[in-house]
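hey so u asked for the seq, here:
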Amino acid sequence: MKKILAAVLATSALVAPAAAQEITEFRIGLLGGENAQDRLASNECFRAYTEEALGVPTKLFTAADYNGVIQGLIGGTLDMAWLGASAYAAVYLENPDAVTPVLVKTNLDGSFTYHSIGFARADSGITSLDDMKDKTFGFGDPNSTSGYLVPLVEIPAAGYSMEPGEFFSDVVFTGGHEQTIIAVLNGDVDGGVTWADGQGAWEDGYNSGQLRKSSDAGIVDMNDIVEIWKSSPIPEGPIVLRNALPEDVKTKMTELTAGLHDMDPQCAYGVAAGETAGFEPVTHDAYKTIIEVRVAQQSQSN
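ran it, C-alpha cells below
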C-alpha cells in the first residue's frame, strides 16, 4: 500500500502548480444526501484531526446539493471532498485540472464498489419494478451516481422507460438520498433509490451507505421498507484534493485520511457512512467508464 500511496502522491505532484501559496485555512466540502446537522456531526472528528495536522483553521461546508460542492472544487473555494463517481466526472469534464482523486473508501471485504438500491414501503405491495407501473419514482440528485446516473442507464436497459408517464407515472427529484428515504416513508413517492454497499444484513441497512446511516439515526426501520431493485456494482467515488494546494498539504491530508481507520475506527465509521476496511489509493482511471456514461447522458439530453 505504501508504494501505491507514494505513486498517487507523485502523480498528483505532476499536475499541481509549481508555486502553490501557503494556506491560511482548509475547507472540506460535504455532498448532500442527509441533513446538514448530521453531515457536520459525522465529519467533525475528521475536521478536528485535519486542523491539528495542518495547523490552520479547518471548516466543513454542507452544500444544499451536489452541484454546490462540484462548483466549490472547480472554483477553488473548497480544498477536499468525498465525491460520488458521477460528481467527480462532472468536475473533471468542466475542469480536468481542478482536482485529483487520491483515495477511495473500501468495504469490509476490501472491494470499493456499491449499489444503487431501489426500495418501497413494505406495506405498499410493491416488491419489484414491475409493481411500479403507474407509480411515482423518486431520485436524489441529478449529479448523484447511484441516485440518478446509474438508474437512468440500467432501469431502461431492463425494459422500464424513465420518461414520466410511459411506465412510471412520474419521475421526480427529492433533493438527496435521505430525502428520498423520507419521501418513500411519507408516501410522497411510491418508490425511490439510494445507495448501499450491498454487504451485510438488510435489517441493518447493509454495512454502509445511506440506508445504514438512516437506520443508525432512527430515520427508518428497515422492516418498514423492502428492496425492489439493485444495480450492478458501481465504483465508489473518490476522495479528491484540489490540485493547487501545496504539496505538503496534499501529502498530509492523503496520509491522514489513509490512516484514519487505524487511528480512530469510530471516526472512520462516521466519515465512511458505516462499516469500512479503510481508505485505499485510487486514480482517475477507475472512473473513466462513469465519465463516458455521463458524457453520453449529456449528449442525449442536449
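The chain has two domains: 2-110+237-301, 113-234. The first helix runs from residue 2 to 15.
lmk if thats what u needed
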